[in-house]
Every structure is written in structure tokens, then in C-alpha cells.
Write a structure and sequence with these properties.
205 residues; globular; single chain; mainly alpha
Length: 205
């Protein structure tokens, strides 16, 4: 059962073992986030948040979609942003390197637990959003990522990000979301500062 009381589909021991392995890797994240006063590894939390949203949007999510949700940012801390120059080109190079790293790491685990190449490629395609706009599973994953940003990361973004830039981020995030995800986003319990910012960014919503 996920954090919202939804029972995920049971795809058998191989799927459970892959998720356990993903979680074990992400539990090594040195960055800790306090939840209910208890410190938890950030990337482990992030993977669970994405999975929870996938299941809220699609309770009968496919096996590939659940696997992709769980390994989207696997071991992300191992390639820190400051390992590349703090410029736009440096950011793009960093993101590109992360994509390759996540794909390689997740493929190793999926192969070790017995998945065939077809499933591994499917999971990687979802993580890389290769068919966004054409693939329903890809859109659900994109929606989940956007909702995690709005629910769990917006407060930090307000503190750390220039307001003009943040308004653009919110507008781009909203544009990427499906109507169903936008409905979910509109029901989130935002703080007053978050709600004011969203109203500035999306005055017609």
C-alpha cells in the first residue's frame, strides 16, 4: 500500500526485488530531509513521492511505469550540480550526464533481477520521456514529476529562486501537465505564499 492507501498492482517477485534494490541504492543519499521529525534520505523520499502520484493518477499503472517512477533519479547525488560550471551550458551538460547515469544504473539493476532487454528499454524510454505527448504512460510519469515539484519542492524554490525565473518555471510546469494532473494540482494545500505565486504565474487558471 502506498502513502495514500492505494494498493499498487502486484507484478510479482521480480518487480518487488527491483523496487527494493532501487530503494536500497537511494537510501544511501547523504542528503536527509526531516519528515515528521524523522530524517530520511532525499532521493528515497523522492522516488516514493513520484510512485505515490503515479498510483493516484493511475491505480492500475503498468509494470514499466512503476519501475520507471521508482528509479527516475536513482543515485542522483553522485553527480552533483557543482561538478559542472554554473552556466546554462554547464547545466545542460550536467542534465545530459545525469540521464545517461540514471539509465545505466537502472538497467544494471533490472538486468540483475532478470528483466529482458525489452522491458529495460521500455523503462529507460519512459525515464527519458522519449514519446511525451504520444505515450500515455509517459504523460502520467511527467504529471507525477510535476505534482511532486508543486507539492514538495515549491516552498524551497520560493526561497532559493529569483521570482521572475520561478514564475517561468511554474508556467512551464503547468503547460506540461494533463488536465487530470492540473485538477490534482489545484487541490493541493498550498501555503499563502505558494498560492499567491501560482496566481501570479497562472492568472487564468
Amino acid at each position: 500500500m502506498d502513502a495514500n492507501g492505494i494498493h499498487p498492482p502486484d507484478y510479482g517477485p521480480r518487480s518487488s526485488e527491483a523496487i527494493r534494490r532501487f530503494d536500497r541504492e537511494n537510501a544511501r543519499d547523504p542528503k536527509l530531509v526531516a519528515v515528521g521529525g524523522v530524517p530520511q534520505p532525499h532521493e528515497l523520499l523522492y522516488a516514493r513521492w513520484v510512485t505515490d502520484w503515479v498510483l493516484r493518477l493511475c491505480p492500475q499503472a503498468s509494470e514499466a511505469l512503476l519501475l520507471a517512477a521508482r528509479c527516475q533519479h536513482i543515485c542522483r547525488w553522485m553527480i552533483p550540480r557543482n561538478s559542472y560550471e554554473m552556466t546554462r551550458s554547464g547545466y545542460l551538460r550536467w542534465r545530459n550526464e545525469l540521464k545517461k547515469f540514471h539509465a545505466k544504473k537502472s538497467a544494471e539493476i533490472l538486468r540483475e533481477v532478470g528483466y529482458p532487454d525489452e522491458m529495460i528499454e521500455r523503462v529507460q524510454d519512459l525515464n527519458l520521456k522519449k514519446r511525451l505527448g504520444q505515450d500515455p504512460d509517459c504523460q502520467i510519469l511527467e504529471d507525477a514529476l510535476c505534482l511532486v515539484t508543486l507539492q514538495h519542492q515549491l516552498a524551497d524554490l520560493i526561497v532559493k529562486t529569483d521570482q521572475v525565473k520561478l514564475l517561468g518555471i511554474l508556467q512551464k510546469t503547468w503547460k506540461k501537465m494533463s488536465p487530470a494532473a492540473r485538477q490534482q494540482a489545484s487541490r493541493l494545500p498550498y501555503s499563502e505564499a505558494e498560492r499567491e505565486l501560482i496566481q501570479q504565474a497562472l492568472p487564468d487558471e
